[in-house]
Write a structure and sequence with these properties.
The chain is mainly α. 46% of the residues lie in helices and 0% in strands. Helix 2 crosses helix 3. The protein starts with 30 loop residues before the first helix and ends in a 24-residue tail after the last helix. 18% of the residues are buried. This is HigA family addiction module antidote protein.
Length: 150
């Protein structure tokens, strides 16, 4: 006689309100800045050490520190290495991406909300918060580059 287990019940849906918002009065920092300032510096952890703990290459950690986006796999690895949740890193990245998109729409968008070239690139970048500007990947971030408060 064959023994079968009953099918697992579906997990309850995640309850998110449709107007989910994050406090706009807080400074918006990129995930790399949060990683550096809230986790690595206070604990004296280098990119090489975090790479060993997370299983990510050190060069990839350094790219995140200078502004490369964090994807799901990196979020899982950072969560495991830093005792956080992967969702924490994904929300930081999503919030950062939304702010950049809002800046682009606000400063480049037309009446229809589509993105159009309306000003020279230097003028567009100057009107966005400093950390939304494209930073060279070889230059380390400093406090001036990380201000995202509005």
């Amino acid at each position: 006689m064959r023994c079968t287990l009953p099918p697992p019940s579906a997990p309850p849906p995640v309850m998110l309100h449709t107007s989910l918002q994050i406090d706009a009065s807080t400074c918006l920092r990129s995930p790399g800045v949060v990683l550096r300032d809230d986790f690595m510096r206070p604990n004296g952890v280098s990119a090489n050490e975090l790479a060993r703990r997370s299983g990510m290459p050190a060069w990839h950690i350094r790219r995140v520190l200078v502004g490369a986006p964090i994807h799901a796999e990196e979020a899982l690895r950072l969560a495991s290495a830093l005792n956080t949740s992967a969702l924490y890193w994904m929300v930081l990245q999503a919030r950062h991406d939304l702010a950049k998109a809002q800046c682009a729409i606000t400063h480049n968008g037309g009446a229809d909300g589509a993105l159009h070239e309306t000003a020279p690139p230097q003028a567009k970048r100057a009107s966005c918060p400093p950390s939304e500007q494209k930073l060279p990947e070889t230059r380390p971030l400093n406090k001036q580059d990380t201000r995202f408060c509005r």
